Amino acid sequence: MPELKTFALFVLTALAEIIGCYLPYLWLREGKSVWLLVPAAASLSLFAWLLTLHPTASGRVYAAYGGVYIFMAVLWLWQVDGIKPTVWDMVGSAVALLGMAIIMFAPRSG
Hints:
Layout: H1 2-30, H2 37-51, H3 58-79, H4 87-105
Helix pairs in contact: 1-2, 1-3, 3-4
């Protein structure tokens, strides 16, 4: 069960980061309100805090998190941008998730 909890925490972390970056994108590229920077800053703060909740070395967390971020970004592409992922997008996401699982859940001594 700790694996599912770790994955869920990574998913929330990725969502916070993507939202925190997407809102300034809307302001800069789509001409939306500058007030979007307020929830963007809050979302990026949440992202940083969520990364601290993992009980392992920060470098390992950052490396493994990248795999889940890739997966979530492809889901964002599909659900928010309305672009269906290609087979290669899905294969790349699967490889990234496999890398995350190896980094986070491989047996370690000590």
